[in-house]
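[#protein-structures] MJ: dropping Isomerase YbhE here for a structure pass
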Amino acid sequence: MSLRTLLIAGLATSASAAKLLVGGYGPTSATNANGYLDTLDYTNGALKKTSENTEAGPQPSWIDLGLKGKAIVVDEAWNTPDTSSLHTFDLNSDGSLKHTAVVGIPRGGPVATQLYNSNKNLAIAHYGGHGITTFNVVNGTFELLQNIGYANTTHGPKPQQADGSHVHHSVLDPTGQYVIFPDLGLDVTHVFCIDASTGNLTEHAELKAPSGYGPRHAAFWKSGNKTYLFVIHEIASKIISYEVTYVRSGGLTFKQMDEQSTYGPTADPAVTQYGAAAEIAVSPDNKFLVASNRNVTLQQVPNVDPSNSTQIDSNSIATFKPSSNGKLSFVQLAPSGGLFPRHFELSKDGSQIAVANQNSGNVRIYTRDVASGKIGAQQAAIAVPGQPNNVRWL
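AK: finished. structure tokens for Isomerase YbhE:
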């Protein structure tokens, strides 16, 4: 074999190698067992677990890689909400984790984090705790800054909203001046302005969702000099597109531009009414919008175990193409590879997507055509313990 051939082969091998970090709740049969953070090696079309860490409590629910060389993880702590905690890990060169710090959180049910103010502060969305907390980032650990709660006297009409506020996501706007928090229980998205000198958040007028829609997650999108916000609604399985205007005196205003089913324009409401939309993200090239659907099976996929010929049920991943006026064009509905795809993440170049299928206990990687936005063939799959709810490319 020539030197040139060897070099090309080596480059191809290295290009196909990557590492991922997947987190999940502990096994449902052992509610007191800790959850897990597994490092996966992805080489030549195969996934292999290389390390596991169980130091983030029983229900780690979110992984944040926003601090260089570190992983921030929150423990939702369902059974003992007073023990919710915020963990810091060092990321070793092999992708394994070293636990370096933990602090208690004075509000239960943390489910998402967002660094802001040039990474000097952290905001946490609390689903079970009905509110928001903020922290100062100090030498790789955290000090409580604010503890904001919402009274549960007003809420949406659906059963999932009966106990009031369920803040589900925290998202920094493109200017770095605002953090927004979709609240599934109150049918609103809370809007906060950042005080750069203190890190404190000040609340402004909220964005109201249609009654019973249940806003879960959101993503900002820039098109020229315009800013849009896409909000995915868990209960209604809808994405609403808003044009965002920055008010000189402070705050944001929103003009609805579009509303689309997360199953596409030909979806049968009789089938999709039981859906529970979950994650939403803009592609790395800023050209597509990707969303996950849970609880509705539209197709089957091969088993994770190649020796098992029995196919398994699969939920779906939807792709849309946003236009410069904020309207969404449906592109594709692809299989997620299992049930309850709570989270997914696109690779840095957008050519692959990793999906955590919570109720099937697996992680799958699919190819993705960057030009068309369409998700293609499965590249790799692996069974993981418990219920995977977060997957990140390292």
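MJ: nice. The chain has two helices and 30 strands.
AK: one more thing. Residues 23-393 form a domain with the Methylamine Dehydrogenase; Chain H fold (CATH 2.130.10.10).
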